[in-house]
UniProtKB/TrEMBL annotation:
The lineage of its organism: Eukaryota, Viridiplantae, Streptophyta, Embryophyta, Tracheophyta. It comes from the Eukaryota. InterPro entries: RVT-Znf. Residues 75-160 form the Reverse transcriptase zinc-binding domain. This is Zf-RVT domain-containing protein.
Amino acid sequence: MIRSGNSSFWKENWLGRPLWFLACPLLALTVKEALDIPPLLDVLLDHPQKEVAKSIKLIEGQDKLIFSLAPSSIFSSSLFYEEKRHKANAFSWVKYIWNSFIPTTIAFFIWKTIFNGISVDQNIQRRGIPLASKCRCCLNSNVETLEHLLFQGDVAVNIWGNFSKALNLTP
């Protein structure tokens, strides 16, 4: 907020960027001093910059920086982060994974499984690392994929079979 005009004319963020340029000999010029020399502004500024300069009205008081994202005008790193970070669309089913009933380690495993982030041999190979693949849980040599690990492998089939017997589910 410009009041007395003691802020730097060149270094403040007027148009999403400062007005100054490296060859400018007047970097120490304040807003008040710049406004007192109108021909200087006509020579040094482009049209949008001139409009900014014309819109400045000085009043009594101290100049201060205003953080426009905060209602209090005081800078907040958390508000700045929220404004600048990339926000993805929220999934409606996420609340079923990230809740207090599911332990965090299990929730992370489920999350990585959904987004194919488990380090099975197939995913490692897909990232360009040469690797001979063999499932270490099976008697016959199968390629270790996420589907094999969770549903098709000998151990997975045995575990799912025990769960279906315990819950009286027929295959």
